[in-house]
UniProtKB/TrEMBL annotation:
Coiled coil: none annotated. This is CD6 protein. The gene is Cd6. GO terms for biological process: zymogen activation. Residues 1-99, 104-199 form the SRCR domain. GO terms for molecular function: serine-type endopeptidase activity. Pfam families: SRCR. One of its GO terms (cellular component) is plasma membrane. It comes from Pitta sordida. Disulfide bonds join 70-80, 168-178. The keyword Disulfide bond applies. SUPFAM superfamilies: SRCR-like. Keywords: Disulfide bond.
Amino acid sequence: LRLAGGRSRCEGRVELEHQGTWGTVCDDEWDIADGDVVCRQLQCGHAVSVRGNSAFGRGHGPILRDELGCSGNERHLWECPAAPEHDCSHKEDAGVVCSEHQEWRLSGGRDGCAGRLEVFFHGIWSTVCDSSWYHLESAVLCRSLGCGEPLQKLSFGHTLPGKMVYECGSLQPSLALCHWKFNKSGPCQQTWAVGVICNGTGS
């Protein structure tokens, strides 16, 4: 099981592997209970929202499940009852956004590659504390946003409801693969919110 076409491994089009071939799930009867099973199986928390109509792009290969009827307690998606045949096309591929999905943006700068760093997690936008934020963390962020390399770190006040802390031990493809903590007061007391200017240009 995997999620494809999203902005993290915890968001995207639902894909299953069967006999060495990856296929998709049809959005007929697709609901939060089905999404919960997917998110839990992938260790991505629970489903925040479910999407149909190939919201994360059209998949390829066979359509392996249709009219799923999960109770939400199953450990694996293939334990859920489903229709024996499907009447779908890939324009009906199902997707899900899980609670552990994180996405990032730089706001208030001249474009999407400069400004205050904000992270979307557990359904809200939050700021990031500068207590463990160094050049390495900036490099991970700039590259993951397609914004090149970091030029400068900025400081802002915290004005959003949550606070996130990141600590990267190496140059990861995403901040979600670094060590992170959400709304833990210790590392965030009397800190500033991180801002970054990358050398690329964004939308």
